[in-house]
Amino acid sequence: MPRDFLQGVRDRYDVVVIGSGLGGLTAANLLGRAGHRVLLLEQHYKLGGLATWFRRPGGHIFDISLHGFPVGMIKSCRRYWNREIADQIVPLERVRFDNPMFSLTTTYDREDFTRLLVERFGVAAETVRAFFDTARGMNFYGDQQETVGQLFERFFPGRRDIVRLLMEPIVYANGSTLEDPALTYGIVFSNFMSKGVYIFQGGTDRLMSLMHQELRRNGVDVRIRCEADEILVEHGRISGVRVWGRTIGARAVVSNANLRATIFQLMETSHFDPDFLEQARKVRLNTSSTQVYMALKPDQSIDESTGDLLFSSTAEQFRTDLLLSPQITSRTFSFYYPRTRPQGRPRHAIVASTNARYEDWKHLSPDAYQAAKRELIETSLEALEKYVPGCRERIEWVEAATPLTFERYTKHVGGASFGTKFEGLGVSRALPTQVHGLYHAGSVGIIMSGWLGAINYGVIVANDVDSLLMPPSTPRRTSSVVAGK
Ligand SMILES: Cc1cc2nc3c(=O)[nH]c(=O)nc-3n(C[C@H](O)[C@H](O)[C@H](O)COP(=O)(O)OP(=O)(O)OC[C@H]3O[C@@H](n4cnc5c(N)ncnc54)[C@H](O)[C@@H]3O)c2cc1C
After folding, report:
1. Which fold has domain 53-91+198-205+287-410?
2. Residues spanned by CATH 3.50.50.60 within the chain?
3. Is 417 in the pocket of ligand 1 (CB under 6 A)?
4. Measured at the alpha carbon of residue 306, what is the angle toward residues 168 and 381, in degrees to the nearest 5?
5. Rounded to an integer, what distance in angstroms lies between the CA atom of residue 178 and that of residue 30?
6. pLDDT (tens digit, 9 = 90+) per residue, 208-220?
7. For 5-16, what is the mean pLDDT?
8. Nearest CA to ligand 1 atom 49
9. Distance (Å, whole) CA 343 – CA 385
10. Residue 223 in contact with ligand 1 by CB distance below 6 A
11. What pLDDT, in 10s, does the model give residues 290-322?
12. Best probe residue, ligand 1, of 256, 309, 311, 408 (max atoms within 8 Å of C-beta)
């Protein structure tokens, strides 16, 4: 008889959170901490969504999306999770670029970028200052017409090398393109530039274990292997969810699933206005990724001067369409040294990532799919040889993930790595106006994606839900959610 993954679950909660990505986890944690009865349903057998990991023989652990995030994670984790988690966030020391236009190593912060732009790329200091100030000053209420490409042209006309330096990591960090609103670039770039790139020391496995402990402390009922089949609505209000054939009542639902899946797969479309559905249909998904996970033999090591994060490309010019092409010319290598997991066995791992289109993988026959994966591994090893000589003999485990892998494990439509394009944010925020008690907290709009964006969106939505659940006569407790402990 199959195990009952809902054993002991109540018939009713204040709120059900669907999905344990960073947005769902954070919303659940804050709502639990605020005293609401929270059920968190995750369809996979692990927590974390895209922020997860897997283990392979030989003591190798691979992180899926632990490559780098802005310093703001420290504050968000301290306020909305706990100090122990925040204290394990550490800066990356070496971010490298290597392409036909330039090779350099940087700490990837405003000071070092200013130095590079002035001394190496010959830009006037006041132009650099004006660019940084403009990027920093961008917000939702400003101009949303200017594109990223136009922003660069305004400050650095004709400078394709500078566009490459400024844009390549951000394309990688949130899938944005030169055609997206400049706002999506400005906010993410400024977040990184404030103090460089950070990661979680201990690895995603440790992070998820600490987050799970905190959820339990806050009384959240966490259930893995529990796929929500349907979000239930009665008379325009959330009434609960259906999972494993059971109906569980709730006054509110926070979906951390893909926005399009939330609207078109988990709900009856009859619950929405036709105009809203039209807007929702127009929401474009972000692109997907491929990854090649490589682990060195235990007696092998990589010198730390190789860098932590390496943006490598063999393309003569920087073009976002080239970044998506199946004929890969650009790869981001993340190098994980034993210090990444001080608690584990001393191991060196490398993850090679590229942006990718779901459509390029979706229609392959099973044989062609396997062949394409082998090709991806081969070309990744070839590219790595330049930075880790003799890598083929030194590596003992290698495997590849594709857009289909990300789709399979997270149920993201199109295997999207960063949710939706900009227009997804408005649709996500409008859900409660369509169905009372329905919320979405997951990667949307480029800005609300990535580790920091997803966590911060979880906070925003937890506040909304807290306000809904509080009886009108009760003094507002929202501050307990916003301010954290
Ligand atoms: C290859 C790759 C590399 C990345 N690198 C970085 C990086 O270096 N830095 C960075 O900041 N960001 C990175 N990201 C992006 C970042 O990981 C994501 O934006 C973020 O983790 C998404 O969080 P989320 O809250 O939107 O939820 P997701 O991680 O998308 O999780 C959604 C969860 O919902 C669950 N779910 C879906 N449907 C159901 C259902 N019906 N019932 C129950 N559960 C369901 C899924 O199983 C999943 O656990 C990367 C992404 C990828 C793919």
Report:
1. Polyamine Oxidase; Chain A, domain 2 (3.90.660)
2. 12-45+224-284+420-482
3. yes
4. 75
5. 36
6. 999 999 999 999 9
7. 97
8. 49
9. 29
10. no
11. 999 999 999 999 999 999 999 999 998 887 777
12. 256
